[in-house]
Target: Enoyl-CoA delta isomerase 1, mitochondrial
Amino acid sequence: MDAYKSSVDFAEATAFLSHACYEQDKMALRATLKNKSILSGLLSRLSSCSSHGRVCVSPVLVAQRRNNSTSPKLKVDFNQSTGVAVMHMQNPPVNSLSLGFLTEFCIAVEKLEMDKSCRGLILTSSQPKVFSAGLDIMDMYGKKLEQYEEFWRAVQEMWLKLYSSNMVTIAAINGSSPAGGCLMSLSCDYRIMADNPRYSIGFNETQFGIVVPVWCKEAMTTIVGHRNTELTLELGLLYNPSDALKIGLVDQLVPEDQVLATATKTMTKWLAIPDHARRITKSMMRKPTIDKIMSIREADMQQYISFISKDSTQKMLGTYLEMLKKKRG
Ligand SMILES: CCCCCCCCCCCCC/C=C/C(=O)SCCNC(=O)CCNC(=O)[C@H](O)C(C)(C)COP(=O)(O)OP(=O)(O)OC[C@H]1O[C@@H](n2cnc3c(N)ncnc32)[C@H](O)[C@@H]1OP(=O)(O)O
Model:
């Protein structure tokens, strides 16, 4: 009964999002992100739905949902016949994960998640040479406490949505993917990267004085093991594609012009597995990490706010931003 009620409540909440026009969607989600209690309610409902491999949505909602949407920062191409959506990140110049981008991203993933006909999601970039530059540093610099909170909630939400997705998720990494960009791809089921030695992927945070959150460490450890995580995070390492492949940070390298085609072919292989068996297995593998992270979510928020608002952290971020800008000039 509780599970049923959760499903209905969650469907109602998402119905609201689905019916609203895109700008209204964004406002609604951002209002939600501002409200801790509503958000954790929605999240626990989401995780209780997805952990059982069920999609909790009424057929009416599915019929009314827009499947092909173009928003300023994302382009989603959903092929009904294959059940695969390709999400192109288009937040120039470097697909930084700003609050605006993260909000649109969460809405887009949520909509696909609730659509029973969508079984696979390929995440890629429309920007040349960059998959994603990671978290938008401007959203972590010189802002008010409530803005840090809103931003971090969106970061947590993005990770949870991708990591706990029922869909098969494949990252088609067609450019550099430092820090938050790497985290995004690590949340997917499979990573295919362009074999171009000029591209890099990894976690460089400590190099400019930032500490990755504990859930980022947890997620990485499950993929590349304790030692590789320790080395990467402590030294703030970025890897070229072949070194990334060696430590298992990516699963496959292909020539740059074949990244998307390979992702599509790989998706077909994954979708040949019966959904229910794959979903339950995915949940079995990931649920312990998700549960652990959900239990420290608010503590993580407080740690982030206190760390990011410190004068010393702000000073380091300011210096790093200057350095990034000077690089061009
Ligand atoms: C003790 C307890 C602690 C508790 C927890 C604390 C948590 C603290 C926070 C932890 C967060 C961890 C998780 C993730 C963190 C991040 O993601 S931080 C962001 C890190 N990202 C980077 O360092 C990447 C920086 N960018 C680049 O290296 C390059 O831009 C690129 C991606 C390789 C692309 O290079 P290129 O094509 O040459 O473009 P550029 O000329 O360098 O850049 C173009 C413009 O874009 C701006 N820009 C680049 N990156 C960002 C960014 N991340 N955010 C905002 N803006 C960015 C750059 O400044 C250029 O701007 P203009 O000069 O104005 O054009």
About this structure: Confidence is low (pLDDT under 50) at residues 1-22, 36-67. The two ends are 62 Å apart (CA to CA). The domain at 74-319 is CATH 3.90.226.10 (2-enoyl-CoA Hydratase; Chain A, domain 1).
